[in-house]
Structures are given as structure tokens and as C-alpha cells.
Amino acid sequence: MLKTECKKTTSSELSTFSKGSYWITTFGCQMNKADSERMAGILEDLGYLRANDEFEADLVLYNTCTIRDNAEHKVYSYLGKQAKRKKLLPKLKLVISGCLAQQEGESLLRRVPELDLIMGPQHVNNLQNLLEKVESGNQVVATEEKYISEDITSARRESSICGWVNIIYGCNERCSYCVVPSVRGKEQSRYPISIKKEIQTLAEKNYKEITLLGQNIDAYGRDLPGTTKEGRKENTLTDLLYYIHDVEPIRRIRFATSHPRYFSKRLINACFELEKVCEHFHIPFQSGNNDILKAMARGYTIEKYKRIIDNIRDLMPNASITADAIVAFPGETEDQFQDTLSLINEVGFDLVNTAAYSPRPNTPAALWNNQLSESIKKERLKKINEVVEENSKLRNQRYLESIESILIEGINPKKPSQLMGRTRSNRLTFVEISNNSTPQEFFGREVNVKIKEVRSFSLSGKIFK
Ligand code: SAH
Ligand code: SF4
Ligand code: F3S
To answer: Which atom in ligand 2 lies closest to the alpha carbon of residue 181?
Structure first.
């Protein structure tokens, strides 16, 4: 969900200048969060002010996810409450966007007739036009496949230090369990020049970190015309990293999500060579068993996956490696599940996001007759989470007493006397400061911190002079 820390909108501001107030709740991945920031930017350009309360807003937008079925259920309960409100307040505008909106399309109108606008992820940049149609009294459904026009709007970003930059939309893979290709459409890469321009704009506003985003970021450029030189395309992710590296004062560059099928040695070399590219790689493996990987249609073997990790660690021994894994995929035996646990122990991940398999509409695996029971799903998820946590704790020990460069992003919300930031490897870190310094003077700065405490998912330390 989108966490916000912003200036409160006063009632006089609302009545004097604005078109009304808006509220956005975001579900799902970083791509959805980046989309929400763009839609918030469009709404503010139109004169909407951010509401202080979801149930007081004049326009409510739910940006949804459908990766697993539990992501779906929450939205329906939120929508139900807003639909009731709309009965008393007909002027309320109710919008559903994102992947669930794309998946369900018009059928959502039968479920929630109070909806004004249903829009898929490819229509985000077009929100203004869609709202104009709503204002002329229509109920609008925008889910047709669309070429995503260059972003001419300015995003309303949550952070003033770290910014997300989409470089490729959609996904052309066909993993047998995954709903993303059917809801996010075909791959569409942005041109390097537009990406660089967006990063320059962020740099002018003094942003210090950018994260390049794509569902399969390693596929970047394969749909671009790109000239061929020495037998390769020039518009790859690796080329893009070299091309954007000189933008100042950006200090850190990250990218996600990587696909093992396309993760090249050339990319690893570039990450090693380019100073601003952080030593953090998010490379989902999904399963530790080759037969399951085949059934998932992932297009690589565990041997290849381990070679990628070895190649990274040969050059960057302390790099952080994170991943995603699915347990209880249809037909997964106990032994195959054990292979996943063994892989986690063997590789030593910093973190693995885990999930039990969830059958999704329009995906092949959902139709197979070898589905596993809920109790096996629950049991395997519990077991894998224990193994992941043990590994994270162990891996984190390497930070103890080390000196890490932390980019300060703000204040620890649970302990305002501490600063909060991240290591280059993306570990959340809390930093003590002396009584005579003000936290704000550190925002956006990289400071050296001696790590004094290590937990499974975060670190604490003191400024090291
Ligand atoms: N593009 C990325 C992942 C996108 S979805 C990749 O290829 O790895 C994010 C994560 O959700 C996936 O890595 C996977 O672990 C999980 N996921 C996707 N579909 C799922 C499903 N049907 N059931 C359970 N988990 C799923
Ligand atoms: Fe889904 Fe596979 Fe595409 Fe990732 S690469 S978004 S898991 S289809
Ligand atoms: Fe969810 Fe769509 Fe992202 S399904 S994980 S919001 S691409």
C-alpha cells in the first residue's frame, strides 16, 4: 500500500483552489506504485488535492493487483464500502485501475455498478481524457490494448530522494502460472533518450537514487529498432546503464526485476564496472527443481541459475542477492520442494519473497488436474519462510562491525531520533545521530555508518567519522 507522509490539506485550500480531493490506494508491485505516482501527478495537475482520509475524498482510485487471489479479495471489500458511500454522495468519483481492472474489465460493472471508471495499466497516462468522459456523464471502461504514449505528465512521487523510472512495460514471457502477460500486455521499451531525460529531470530536483523498472527488465530493448554492431543490439539494459551513468548528482542506480533466462555476463561486468550501479540483484528462481522449472516454462535450469550467482560473486563477493520463490506449484512432490530449500541453503540469499501457488485466470497451470491441497501449501510456505529467515539472519552477519555507506531517506517512523536509509545492497538501516544535529541536514546524503546491530531484515548503526 502507498504510504504517505505529506503536508495535510486544509479545508480552506480544498474549497478555494481545488477541484476536490483524491485518494489513491495501491496494491501490488513497484510498477503499480510507479503508475500510482503518475496518476497522482495527473490528478494534481487537474487541480485535485490529496485527501487526508479515504472516506472523505471526492475521487477514490484503487490501483489493483491480481498476482494471487488474496490480492483480489481485499479490493472488493474496499470497493463495497465506497459504493455504499456513493449512494449518499452521488458526486463521488470511483475509479479502479491496475491489473485486476484489466483482468475483469466490464464485468466489474456488474459487481460494482457504482464504478465510474475501469482502466487497465496501459491507460495510466491517459487518465485526464478518461476523467473528462466521466465528467460528461459516462461510465467508462478502458481496457483495450494500447501503445503506451511517452509520459508527458510529471509524477507526484512519494520520495524526494529515490525515484522509480519505468523502462519497459509488459512481459512477453509465458510462465505457466503467471497472470502478468495477460494483464500488462506485450513488451514496450521506452527510448533511451526519453529515459535519460526523465532521469535528468529527477537529477535537477536533487534526487539521488533511481530504480529502473520492468517486469522482465533484461528484455529491455528487444522491441526497439536498435542498430546492430558486432553482431549485437545496441539497446540492451547493459547499454542503457552505460548511457545513463553520467547523470549528476544521481549517486545510485538500481534495476528490477531480472530474469535468469536473460541475465548476461556482460550485464554483470557492467554492474561491476559502473560505480553508481548498486551491488543488489533481484533474480527470482521460483523453484529449485529442474522439472518444476520446466513445467513453469521458465527457460533455464538450476545449474544456469547457480552459474549466474557464481559470476556475480566472482566479481562482487558481498553483493546482495534476493529472489522470489513459489511453493506447492501443481504436481510439486515433497522431494522437489526439498530441492527449493536446498537451493536457498546453498546460495545463501539475503532475502527471498515467498508465496504458495495460486491458480490465476487465463494461465495454463490453473487448468491442470494436479493441484495441491491448501494444507500442503500452508505447510510448505511455513517451512520455506523459516529457512529464508535463518539464511537472511546468517547472511546479515557479514554487516556486523562493517562500515556501510547509507543513503539517508528520512526518519525512522518508529523512533524519530533515528535516521532511516539503505545500504548500497538495499538493506534497510537505522542510524543514531547526536543530539546536536538535526535529521533534515542528512536527508539525501550518503553517510558512513558503523553497523552495530544486525536483525533478519534490518540493521542499526552509528555515524562513522
Ligand atoms: N517478472 C518477475 C516476477 C513478477 S510477479 C519474474 O519473472 O520473476 C512477482 C512474483 O509473484 C513472482 O516472482 C512469483 O514468485 C509470484 N507469483 C506470480 N504468479 C504467481 C502465482 N500464480 N501464484 C503464486 N505466486 C505467484
Ligand atoms: Fe510473469 Fe514470467 Fe513475465 Fe515474470 S517473466 S512477469 S513470472 S510471465
Ligand atoms: Fe500485481 Fe500487476 Fe504487479 S498483477 S504484481 S500489480 S504487474
So the answer is: 8
